[in-house]
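Justification of computing resources. Each target in the renewal requires a structure prediction run like the one illustrated here; the chain below, 305 residues long, is used simply to show the kind of job we budget for.
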Amino acid sequence: MRTLVAGARALWVVLGVLFCASHDTWASDLPEIRSRSAIVIDAQTGAEIFGKDADQVRPIASTTKIFVAMVVRRKGIDLDGWTEITRTDVKAALGGARTRLDVGQSFRNRDLLRAMLMASDNRAPTALGRAVGLSPEQLVAEMNKLARSLHLKRTKFTCPSGLRGNVSTAREMAIALRAALEDDVLREIMGEHTATIVSKSRYAKIGYGNTNQPLVEKRFDVIGGKTGYTQKAGYCFVTGARFDEREVVMAFLGADGKLTRFADFNRLASWLAQGAPGSKIVTKRPRRKPPKLEVEARGRVADSQ
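Resulting structure tokens:
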């Protein structure tokens, strides 16, 4: 009896060691991500490929602006229409980064979308809202309504620019960007490397570069996305990318360093390019090795056992 018990215990020890070893191997396959929250989802199915605290509610900074873009597009904004920058836009942008949209100058709405999505100009959101007849307060209300329609229960807005108060999760921001990339106009704008916009008076001629660093670097096939930063939110980044025939959407929230979010992207992108080893969903199947053939001395293939 004692022999049987000892044998059973030994078996459990062996199984435990094997489980721990396999778990450690699986865990070692996953990239080390330094952003506080991150996720990768399949753009077609929405299935999660990678996640790190993906449902933690966090400030989202200027990644907010993809919601502004979706709202005004759904309101039927005239892309070739002109909108003037006003003191209302100045007030809404207080506390944000330097703007290049001067008060009194009018810009095409398509170009205001470029200024907002590519370079994150904080005067553009309220101007775009006004182009579709929405006050800043009404624009915020429509952004919250859009979040509810996308079933984003943890996403809340109080500010069109993202400078104050807006929160979401990595998962919900990935879902939102997935929806934004379904709009061909927004997809095209977020995928542009550079753009030059000119005011109606021809007084202002502004060159913009996309803040999506992996898009500009061209190391991977990046579709487009949005960056963001506030002191409270840290450095944020949402983007779409393509690996072979599979499109994915990634979200990174709460990175401590400006380049950390992009380094996190590169780590995950390299992992995805390898087939996402250790994930429940692999991005590509490993090639099957051809069967080994045993050849007899006379050159005939031996019968397989």
